């Protein structure tokens, strides 16, 4: 993997929001292996057990427990650490949960993203930001081919809609504050990964973890959408893309910037 074989990240200061989550923990582990100086900002552990605990990350990286909806706490963390790169992964990631509490989903996924960008705006050390959204941000056309970055944003459920809204927030901030003439230049891009799988995912309402839990308990596996086709990818494939994207943002700036 390209991001594993160079010294680009050595001693580089990186802030990860949502670092206690499944992808966030794997990203923290990878960046530590690359020699980065990592700091995480996250509200709580998303599951018990968790990859964050299983990997012993609490003893190998700096962490701040806080909510991205608390902009004052987030700003204190970012200003104190002064990162060069920000990976924004903190989110409400479960579709079924978005139906149970749509307001909290929008608050976290939309206003949380806005808060991160507001803090970046006042933190002069930040040069590049990767905002992780989802392939669910596209308007679902039920067609058989992959979506393209130029396809319409949409979302029929609160989770998908919130991710489309987050994309619009990033586009607005990128154009209004970080690419305008005379303004501060910060390279920002979104990344829209699909369904990821891999070790350490104990989240509820995900097909593979739910299946493993059912097998371990000797229970029948309940498939909620048996006719759905899911384009799986391993978590490290998505993270490799995030790392390479961040490298390009730092090296080539606005050539790679934009949602």
Description:
With 259 residues, the protein is of the alpha/beta class. Helices cover 39% and strands 13% of the residues. The protein has eight helices and eight strands; from the N terminus they run βαβαβαβααβαββαβα. The strands form two sheets. Strands 3-2-1-4-5-6 form a six-stranded parallel β-sheet, with helices on both faces. β2 (37-42), α2 and β3 form a beta-alpha-beta unit. α3 packs parallel to α5 and α5 runs parallel beside α6. The longest helix is centred in the middle third of the chain and has 21 residues, at 158-178. The chain is globular and about 60 Å long. It starts with 12 loop residues before the first strand and ends in a 7-residue tail after the last helix. The model has no long low-confidence stretch (mean pLDDT 89).
Task: For this entry, give a set of tags.
259 residues, alpha/beta, 6-stranded parallel beta sheet, two-stranded parallel sheet, 8 strands
Provide the low-confidence segments as ranges.
none
Average residue-wise pLDDT: 89
Number of strands: 8
Radius of gyration: 18 Å
Shape verdict? globular
- Tell me about the biggest sheet? 6 strands, parallel
**Alpha carbon gap, first and last residue:** 24 Å
> What's the SSE pattern?
EHEHEHEHHEHEEHEH
Strand order of the largest sheet: 3-2-1-4-5-6
How much of the sequence lies in strands comes to 5-15%
Explain the layout of strands and helices.
Blueprint: E1 13-17, H1 22-33, E2 37-42, H2 51-54, E3 62-65, H3 71-81, E4 85-88, H4 95-100, H5 102-121, E5 128-132, H6 158-178, E6 187-191, E7 196-197, H7 207-216, E8 233-234, H8 235-252
Parallel strand pairs: 1-2, 1-4, 2-3, 4-5, 5-6, 7-8
Helix pairs in contact: 3-5, 5-6
